[in-house]
Design a protein that fits this description.
single chain, about 180 residues, mainly beta, Tachylectin-2, Chain A, 4-stranded antiparallel beta sheet
Length: about 180
Amino acid sequence: MYAGYGYYPEYGSAIYIAKMINPWTLGSYNVLLAKPEYDWEKQGGMAINEGPAVLKRNGRIFIIYSASTTWSEDYCLGMLSACDNCNLLSKASWKKSEVPVFKKSIKNQVVAPGHNSFTKSPDCKEDWIIFHTISGARGYKLDTNSRSTWAQPFYWDNNGYPQFGKPLSPTAELRKPSGEI
């Protein structure tokens, strides 16, 4: 059992991991997994990696995290990946995406998607991402009070990596999750 979390040093924030003895007790030292390195992680005046959420599938562990500032329209999601039998407390076991894995879509009038989590459809046949974002259809105003919570399905590529696509338009017709009555 591990804890992944955002820590806020003087430059912004970074993603750390620690082994847990039980759900309330750290059992190891903290390991820095990711700090902002790319321009897309440094938008809005601060260098940010925060809000890690975990996916596990196909023999891999994925940490999907928010990057840049929440007040920037370029707030987005990045990804770390490691094999599930690797030493997860070794930074060398993790590969970081060089580009965002989920970002704004001006065409769909959606900016600043971030702070995500994951769920399954009622019949467990589909994977869904839950995130907050700002919609132009809501009278686009770039502040944290304009955010709303969204959900949409995502898929897996032939190499076993999650593919989130783009945030759907607020006017897109979203079908019910598989197994929903």
